[in-house]
Amino acid sequence: DTAVSQTPKYxxxxxxxxxxxxxxxxxxHDTMYWYKQDSKKFLKIMFSxxxxxxxxxxxxxxxxxxxxxxxxxxNLHINSLExxxxxxxxxxxxxxxxxxxxxxxGTRLTVV
Amino acid sequence: xxxxxxxxFLSVREGDSSVINCTYxxxxxxxxxxxKQEPGAGLQLLTYIFSNMDMKQDxxxxxxLNKKDKHLSLRIADxxxxxxxxxxxxxxxxxxxxxxxxxxGTRLTVKx
Lengths: 112, 112
Description:
heterodimer, A: 7-stranded mixed beta sheet, B: mainly beta, 6-stranded mixed beta sheet, 5-stranded antiparallel beta sheet, 0% helix
């Protein structure tokens, strides 16, 4: 029983395409996040959702859009993919009052 | 990670102790964390420490916090080859968002 699961694990696509990455957590957590990890392993927060409200949105291009159909899901849609979008994207979740996040195993996106 | 800094690489021999260092800049940080990332996997929370503590020990792991110097360290005793991974330092403040900022990660290599 995976706590935070992401699909797909690997995604190879051409420039200009639109793609989605899905994330689901079965922990009952009320906040979910998307992080981007670049080739140098640097982690940058992209979005977080708390009770279906976007509460963090760093300087991320508007080609990226998070969508949360319910508390257990936070999907990431990316339009017009660019080479620089190639990275590993991690989903994470947290319960308010708890310490630390629970991370998914990541989605490696390669744009060619 | 511009608020949290770590050295990028550390190499030790099996059986030795490893010490991974981290500095942070935000004096209002309340919680400090160490995460471990094994190849192809997500981040796993190893341990955390409150800013009002100086030290926390958990089996082979010892966390030291020098709040005055904003310096955090993770000591792994009797380092094993299975400890080879990237270790991320992270900090957060008390807030509803509990936004977590990560360092760039220290790649620990354990040689037999």
